[in-house]
Amino acid sequence: MQQWARIAILGAMFVVAYLLILAWQKDYGTAETKPQQEAAVVSHEVSADLPNSQTVATAASDVPQANMPAQQATDATAPVSQQLISVQTDLYHLWISPKGGDIVRVELLNHDKNKDSDEPFVMLESDAKRTYVAQSGLVGLNGPDSSRNGRPTYELEKTAYTLADAKPAKGKDGKDIQVLSVPLVLKTADGIEIIKTFNFTAGEYPVVVNHKVVNRSGQNWQGQMFGQLKRDNSEDPGKSDQGIFTLGTFLGGAWGTPDEQYNKLKFNNFVEEKLTTEAKGGWVAMVQHYFVSAWIPGNLKLTQANGEAYTAKLESRKSTDDMNIIGFTSPAFNVPAGTVAEIDAQFYSGPKIQSELKDLAAGLNQTVDYGWLWPIAKLLFVGLEFFHGLVGNWGWAIILLTILVKLILWPLSSKSYRSMAKMRVIAPEMQRMKEEFGEDRMRFSQEMMALYKREQVNPLAGCLPLLLQMPIFLALYWVLMESVELRHAPWLLWIQDLSSMDPWFILPLLMGATMFIQQMLNPQPADPMQAKVFKIMPIIFTVFMLFFPAGLVLYWICNNSITILQQSLINKSVEKDRAKRDEATPAN
């Protein structure tokens, strides 16, 4: 009974792991790539190396449609500029288009394209290969982005900014920070001045996008701020290639409100299950493997009053050229003649670092999606972070975490291993009973149960360690696949990326060897068929582990090694106790 139960659980682990990949691919795999229309490719073409000319055009249909008379739309009279604005901080190199003030390219300087490249990871871009941009502006009754002439073109102070242009300021916590401001100015013929400013803080990814409306006309001005992400159906550039498996995490839209903090929306469902809700303190995002771009609606400040958070409308839709758009629109606000109003929002485009995302908006940190085992995965990640802080290496952190988990489970597993050790000791007695009672299965079962009771053995206790390890194994899989901190993280020697498979397959072979040794310490099945299945299991798991992340295989090796040590000590202890008892029996 015990052996079949253990084989069944091992088989279940194999099947669950396989189904995990299939389910992961179905839920989180990349959307089907659709060919973009030729016109769209041309209109979004930007140099893939260093964008230096404004060829990025944005259709008016991209922006949110507001209820307004077309004849009352404000026409911009600013001259057309052909130069993109280059902004470089310590974290990224970013380009802004004067046409609408959209962010058309973001390169993450602290994250490489892949482990074999020194090129920065490209988060946003707009070229012949891919369209993924962050748009924002003012729409509504007098909003310039609702003009029948299309998106406005802003005047520029200069076209290149670095942290050398930053100025000292005070952060929310009172600490000194360096803020780099990039202003864009739009002046209309009727006396309206709109200053769109991008505020970058040194050492931080969030960007505050502020719109300041100065009304020098003789009439009331009314508008709404919008912020949105626009992306085509191209594949996730951050997905992991694991040999025969292509492991990807969720690629699509996401949004959250204080009441519903995290929700996912596949690109295919942007129309059928489209987002349309209102919230104060919500957010919208596009999620991919390891990285996320998000808009977080901010504050509205009228004249000299303090800024207050506004209730924004969160929406998703498809554009006419089959682009995926998710964004927000603020409520309409008025700027009476002779007054000033400001409205802003935060934009984030970078790695899914939980400690940073949780402070931006409620639920945004859940874009680090650990699946249905997230409570266990979160604890594992906290443990990994702690040990990484001590040793400075994620590989050693995994080993230390494994030791900690085994110590926590030691009391429960010791009872199970002791029961297995007793099964190993009484195996000859069970074989003798089987031969003695032959085909009388009822008598054999009765004698076997009596033996279990006399020796205080639980035949199913040996299954407990496997049951305890299964959720930890699956949770750690999600941690390794979703935590950007482990992306391209080296351990030692040939293991230069714990999030991808072992290129030389040494760790899977070691895992198979430790699994085989562990099985040899357990009671061997009396049934020949069970014995064959038992011997095949290490081979099956070795083959399967060839394509799993090296960090996960490293955990399994450490877990097996500690189990071997624990089982060996318990086996010797039980055998010693049994020998003492056998020696004492004749004397009685």
Q: Label the CATH architecture of the largest domain.
A: Distorted Sandwich
Terminal CA distance? 34 Å
Strands, count: 24
Oligomer: single chain
CATH topology name of the largest domain, in short, is Beta-galactosidase, Chain A, domain 5
Strand content: 25-35%
Summarize the biggest pleated sheet: 11 strands, mixed
- The backbone outline, from C-alpha atoms, is elongated
Number of domains: 2
Helix content: 25-40%
The first-level CATH class of the largest domain is given as Mainly Beta
What class do helices, strands and sheet pairing give?
alpha+beta
Report the uncertain regions. 1-7, 18-60, 67-81
Mean pLDDT reading: 79
How many helical elements? 11
Tell me the radius of gyration. 31 Å
Transmembrane segments: 7-24, 394-413, 457-481, 533-557
Membrane topology: Multi-pass membrane protein
Subunit structure: Interacts with the Sec translocase complex via SecD. Specifically interacts with transmembrane segments of nascent integral membrane proteins during membrane integration.
InterPro entries: Membr_insert_YidC (IPR019998), Membr_insert_YidC_N (IPR028053), YidC/ALB3/OXA1/COX18 (IPR001708), YidC/Oxa/ALB_C (IPR028055), YidC_ALB_C (IPR047196), YidC_periplasmic_sf (IPR038221)
What's a quick, concise take on this entry?
The protein has 588 residues and is an alpha+beta fold. It has helices at 2-28, 38-43, 354-357, 374-391, 394-425, 427-437, 441-455, 464-482, 506-520, 528-545, 550-587; strands at residues 85-88, 92-97, 102-112, 120-126, 131-139, 155-156, 160-162, 167-170, 176-187, 192-201, 207-215, 221-231, 240-242, 245-247, 252-256, 263-265, 276-280, 283-287, 291-302, 308-309, 311-318, 324-329, 333-335, 340-351.
